[in-house]
């Protein structure tokens, strides 16, 4: 596979969220605020890129019959590392993300990439693949979060965008956007737009 | 044993070896990182508790730096220790008391070790606040999934509620975790007129009523739809923990 394609594929044509529909749970849960979405993306980027690199480095040594166990040990160790780091340096953010950092372990994107890509490709390609998939995940996450925070709280990255007078006239933030169904609607719209653009149809 | 069997055997041993090596390495790394980050995590937890204590009396400290937070905490909060019969004990510091979670029901046991004796649940921590004046009582107990820990603030009259916060819980997001949300916590603020004592001066605490429509009732607040166990849990442990402070609350009114 061309290296360029490894990088660009997960961003658009093979995006883990909108095309493969993986990692939806966290995409719904942590997209209430842009800040949370960004921190979550960073955590996933660390886990996914590192797990791809480590798995790919040892791909020839890992015994085939226990490969999933090994991959899971590697992934969960990385997730625990990310969780500890967040608790140590960004306590309030880690509290808001609550269980969802720990749940990166169960994010199908991570295990999926480790088992299908990193086990069969060299370290450099695996690194690019891990990074590009995180980026593809992150773009969608932040996009959803921008809409949800803007419509739901009237802010983006904590900065208030509507003047006070706006609320006095009678504007009310859309509370639905703060709930999971709001994320579903936004995500659905994004998937629809993307599929119209790429012309992809599910078989 | 044939050659084939021997090879299979060897493969199996290799697999086990590999799993063990990987597990050993990863646990080593994790233990090292956990240990080196422990001081800063502990510090963050203490700061977060201070934030929650301030939040329970409606002071927003979320955007303060660490030193500003300490200043604000010290200017508003006085840490006190009371005994079972409700007297304030001046020669014991709150930091002398060790908080131990009772794993079976989530309540906190307060242990104090002096030279000769160990006291359990003889002395309790309480936080006296000024502006707004009142008292803050630590609460903890089981929700549905987890032990919930928080603070409950009452006014100067030792009767009206000032606020409630939870700084640690693992309840379901969107259901039990709603206890974190403003709509739930707002119900405990002073202008809602909720009381913990009834007209006969009995401690009735606050009942988290999931049937809602409680705005007229002084001893009830709206519960959380879909989170019956969490709501009942809070009702139960709030009353239980307030009982410990009953003598103090009734005593010097």
Name the quaternary structure.
heterodimer
The largest sheet of chain A has its strands arranged as: 1-2
Instruction: From the alpha carbons, calculate the radius of gyration of chain B and give it in angstroms.
Output: 24 Å
Q: State the distance separating the first and last CA atoms of chain A.
A: 24 Å
Beta strand % of chain B: 15-25%
Q: Could you say which structural class the secondary elements and strand pairing of chain B correspond to?
A: alpha+beta
Query: How much of the residues of chain A is beta strand, in percent?
Result: under 5%
Quick structural gist:
The complex is a heterodimer of chains A (203) and B (253). Chain A has 203 residues and is mostly helical.
Structure description:
- The complex is a heterodimer of chains A (203) and B (253).
- Chain A has 203 residues and is mostly helical.
- Chain A has ten helices and two strands; from the N terminus they run H-H-H-H-H-H-H-H-E-E-H-H.
- Chain A has one domain.
- Chain A has a two-stranded antiparallel sheet.
- In chain A, helix 3 packs parallel to helix 7.
- The radius of gyration of chain A is 18 Å and the shape is globular.
- In chain B, strands 1-5-6-7-8 form a five-stranded antiparallel sheet. Chain B has a three-stranded antiparallel sheet with strand order 2-3-4, with no helix packed on it.
- Chain B has one domain.
- By secondary structure, chain B is an alpha+beta fold.
- The model of chain B has no long low-confidence stretch (mean pLDDT 89).
- Chain B is elongated and about 90 Å long.
- The interface between A and B is medium-sized, with 25 and 25 residues.
């Amino acid at each position: 596979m061309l290296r360029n394609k490894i990088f660009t594929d997960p961003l658009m044509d093979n995006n883990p969220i909108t095309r493969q529909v993986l990692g939806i749970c966290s995409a719904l849960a942590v997209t209430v605020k842009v800040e949370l979405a960004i921190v979550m993306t960073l955590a996933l980027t660390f886990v996914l890129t590192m797990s791809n690199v480590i798995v790919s480095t040892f791909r020839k040594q890992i015994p085939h019959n226990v490969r999933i166990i090994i991959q899971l040990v590697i992934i969960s160790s990385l997730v625990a590392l990310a969780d500890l780091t967040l608790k140590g340096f960004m306590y309030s953010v880690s509290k808001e993300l609550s269980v969802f950092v720990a749940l990166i372990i169960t994010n199908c994107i991570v295990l999926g990439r480790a088992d299908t890509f990193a086990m069969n490709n060299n370290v450099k390609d695996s690194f690019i693949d891990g990074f590009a998939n995180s980026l593809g995940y992150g773009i969608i996450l932040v996009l959803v979060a921008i809409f949800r925070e803007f419509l739901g709280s009237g802010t983006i990255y904590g900065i208030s965008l509507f003047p006070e007078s706006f609320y006095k006239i009678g504007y009310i933030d859309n509370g639905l956007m703060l709930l999971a169904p709001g994320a579903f609607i936004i995500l659905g719209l994004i998937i629809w737009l993307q599929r119209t653009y790429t012309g992809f149809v599910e078989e | 044993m044939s050659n084939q069997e021997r090879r299979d055997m060897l493969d199996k041993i290799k697999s086990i070896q590999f799993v063990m090596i990987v597990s050993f390495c990863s646990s080593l790394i994790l233990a090292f990182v956990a240990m080196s980050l422990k001081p800063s995590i502990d510090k963050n937890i203490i700061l977060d508790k201070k934030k929650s204590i301030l939040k329970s009396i409606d002071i927003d400290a979320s955007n303060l730096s660490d030193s500003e937070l300490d200043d604000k905490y010290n200017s508003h909060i006085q840490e006190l220790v009371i005994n079972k019969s409700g007297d304030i004990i001046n020669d014991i510091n709150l930091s002398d008391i060790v908080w131990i979670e009772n794993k079976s029901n989530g309540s906190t046991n307060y242990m104090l070790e002096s030279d000769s004796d160990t006291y359990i649940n003889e002395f309790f921590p309480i936080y006296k606040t000024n502006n707004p004046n009142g008292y803050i009582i630590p609460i903890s107990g089981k929700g549905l999934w987890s032990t919930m820990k928080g603070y409950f603030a009452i006014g100067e009259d030792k009767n009206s509620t000032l606020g409630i916060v939870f700084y640690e819980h693992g309840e379901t997001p969107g259901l039990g975790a709603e206890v974190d949300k403003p709509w739930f916590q707002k119900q405990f603020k002073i202008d809602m007129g909720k009381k913990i004592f009834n007209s006969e001066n009995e401690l009735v605490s606050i009942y988290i009523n999931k049937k809602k429509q409680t705005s007229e009732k002084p001893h009830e607040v709206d519960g959380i739809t879909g989170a019956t166990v969490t709501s009942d849990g809070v009702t139960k442990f709030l009353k239980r923990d307030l009982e410990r402070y009953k003598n103090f609350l009734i005593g010097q009114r």
